[in-house]
């Protein structure tokens, strides 16, 4: 699953939750450890697949995940320095450092793309946001069956009863909102002696991407299984 998410086009599935945490002021050492471990392991594991190779570090679709990894390192360094300097010094360091690193990152990215070291965004990426892009600009991509929009029949054929049950599990997660359940991807927490997986953002974004492209049903299936399990567990308890 880790490798699948990293090599898949919808990087939003595993970066958006961490971006929200960082910019909402909810950063913690647990977040740093969780994402750093997740990113390093997922990238290394995905690169072991012969078909994938060095794509996770040489394609633009995967740069946002690397960007979040870099932002976390900066925020961690800032948190370490915060109690050791004055507030004014901290704000100066934070704003100046973040601006300088941001500008440098953009310049380096475009330089790598221009030099051919990093591939630009592909037509499949643009097709995720504009479903008619491939038909107009790259017909060969639109002609591939796995790049077609997913029909309702496919959802029920692939997910079976879980297609109707997983929204209940999502509702239970929303009903019992806390930082972990809302933002942390694949974070397992202990609550009332039972383990739950926080997947609200993952579920919502996965449903969208799965509807855009048939092949992305693979990224939706894990969260559907998890939320269906939560729904059945809560229902049988009640």
UniProtKB/TrEMBL annotation:
Transmembrane segments: 6-25, 32-51, 63-81, 93-117, 152-174, 186-210, 216-236
Listed EC numbers: 2.4.99.18
UniProt GO molecular function: dolichyl-diphosphooligosaccharide-protein glycotransferase activity; metal ion binding
Bilayer disposition of the protein: Multi-pass membrane protein
Compartments where located: Endomembrane system
InterPro entries: Oligo_trans_STT3, STT3_N
Keyword Zinc-finger: no
Keywords: Glycosyltransferase, Magnesium, Manganese, Membrane, Metal-binding, Transferase, Transmembrane, Transmembrane helix
GO annotation (BP), single: protein N-linked glycosylation via asparagine
Any Pfam family matching the protein: STT3
Annotated Oligosaccharyl transferase STT3 N-terminal domain residues: 18-227
Required cofactor names: Mn(2+); Mg(2+)
GO cellular component, one term: membrane
Pathway(s) it belongs to: Protein modification; protein glycosylation
Record bears the keyword Transferase: yes
Major location (coarse): membrane
Catalytic reactions of this protein: a di-trans,poly-cis-dolichyl diphosphooligosaccharide + L-asparaginyl-[protein] = N(4)-(oligosaccharide-(1->4)-N-acetyl-beta-D-glucosaminyl-(1->4)-N-acetyl-beta-D-glucosaminyl)-L-asparaginyl-[protein] + a di-trans,poly-cis-dolichyl diphosphate + H(+)
Top-level taxon of origin: Eukaryota
Family recorded in the similarity comment: Belongs to the STT3 family.
Protein name (record): dolichyl-diphosphooligosaccharide--protein glycotransferase
Organism expressing this protein natively: Cylicostephanus goldi
């Amino acid at each position: 699953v880790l490798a699948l998410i990293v090599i898949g086009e919808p990087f939003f599935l595993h970066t958006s939750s961490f971006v929200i945490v960082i910019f909402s002021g909810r950063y913690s050492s647990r977040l740093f450890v969780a994402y750093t471990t997740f990113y390093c392991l997922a990238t290394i594991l995905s690169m072991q697949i012969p078909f994938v190779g060095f794509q996770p570090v040489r394609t633009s679709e995967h740069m946002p995940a690397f960007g979040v990894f870099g932002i976390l390192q900066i925020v961690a360094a800032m948190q370490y320095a915060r109690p050791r300097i004055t507030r004014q010094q901290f704000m100066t360091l934070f704003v100046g450092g973040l601006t300088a690193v941001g500008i440098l990152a953009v310049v380096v990215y475009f330089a790598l793309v221009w030099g051919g070291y990093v591939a630009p965004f592909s037509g499949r990426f643009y097709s995720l946001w504009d479903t008619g892009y491939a038909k107009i600009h790259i017909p060969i991509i639109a002609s591939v069956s796995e790049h077609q929009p997913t029909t309702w029949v496919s959802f029920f054929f692939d997910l079976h009863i879980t297609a109707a049950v997983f929204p209940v599990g999502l509702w239970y997660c929303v009903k019992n909102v806390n930082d972990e359940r809302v933002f942390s991807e694949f974070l397992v927490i202990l609550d009332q002696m039972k383990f739950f997986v926080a997947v609200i953002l993952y579920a919502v974004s996965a449903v969208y991407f799965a509807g855009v492209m048939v092949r992305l049903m693979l990224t939706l299936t894990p969260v559907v299984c998890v939320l269906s399990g939560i729904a059945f567990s809560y229902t049988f308890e009640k």
